[in-house]
Amino acid sequence: MGIATTNPANGDVLKTFEPLSDRDLEAKLDLAQQTFLNYRTVPMQQKASWLNRAAEILEAERDRFGKTMTLEMGKPLKAAIAEVEKCASVCRYYAENAPQLLADVSVQTDASHSFIRYQPLGIILAVMPWNFPLWQVFRFAAPALMAGNVGLLKHASNVPQSALAIEEILHRAGFPTGTFQTLLIGADQVAAIVADDRVKAATLTGSEPAGISLASTAGKHLKKVVLELGGSDPFIVMPSADLETAISTAVTARMINNGQSCIAAKRFILADAIADEFIDRLVEKYRALKIGDPLLPDTDIGPLATPGILKDLDQQVKMSVQQGAKVLIGGEPLSDRPGNFYPPTILSEIPAGCLAEHEEFFGPVALLFRVPDIDAAIRRANDSPFGLGASAWTTNQQERDRFIEEIEAGSVFINGMVKSDVRLPFGGIKRSGYGRELGKEGIHEFVNIKTIWEK
What we know:
The chain is an alpha/beta fold. The protein is built from 14 helices and 20 strands.
């Protein structure tokens, strides 16, 4: 696929870009390396000032940046604007907290003085996806830049204007030109960048195949990688749950970003005692969602990002039905309009062995499973190759404790929707990846944790 902005609501190609030549790419790598030698010594206070200025730009121009995202990948404009505001929040968080998070830590040993110091590594490559075009990048860039690293961004090829906007924001904020650069390149150029001695580490958010490819290349060159990959998050509802809140949240948790989120709730695991009521009301709420132009304020569901994503999702649903699953609502692409539109869909009565048990459905499709008790709920939740997030709804303290302790995931939310929070570490286990972003753990991923021992 070429590097272009293609409006997923109608298929119009709005702008195209030429990929960087090998010569231009080399110049950017060289600039990043030369910049790092000076940038690593910039006082923390100065970096914080620039990052706060980036937050101000994001907030002042939220409508512009939000519209760019909507035109490139189809999320409702109101959600895109909220994403811009969240990017501002992560900038402010690390501007305020990085000095403390990166401060020397004294440790009592047999030395007269021993401590831990956190120092930058150098150039970090970020390979980022299209589904949250600004947020995925800023949650990497803010801590990496505050730690003294410099960044290279290889963004998804269908969001080039968002990628260039991020570079623009950081440069306008005052960061030197070489501290953060967007690389308009194809996926086939990533391996050579990872192999380059000047690049010290990489981070990727995206698909399993992309993560495996990057990690394999990085492993050959002994480079650290942080991976945030797919998810098939369980949403467990027990008999004691506040059903009204759980159902309302279930709609948002599945339909966020037109269903295209790694941490969207995908598998709804329902206790038999409340399953019938939950399902009837969920179908009713899905039916009320408005599908349409994502630029309009009353649109709930916009298009999927690309025709390929639409095709893949449609094939998964059709195969699940062939294997015995039942469609309660939706189930077919919308052919009455241009664009990549797929309706809110619910699959139930999913049989054992059906692909819907273990594959990630990246779009507005909810998968329903009934269970008799908490033991079965936990088994079903953990019966997945993924382990990103999980949500459980109960007012029973013993059930809460068991979900917290026994669910295999990087995050467990009790009576709430799974979401990322700048103050908390974010990441997964199993095939959802490894490493953490955000919080204290996020800023420590790309530093040399240096031990100092003095006699």
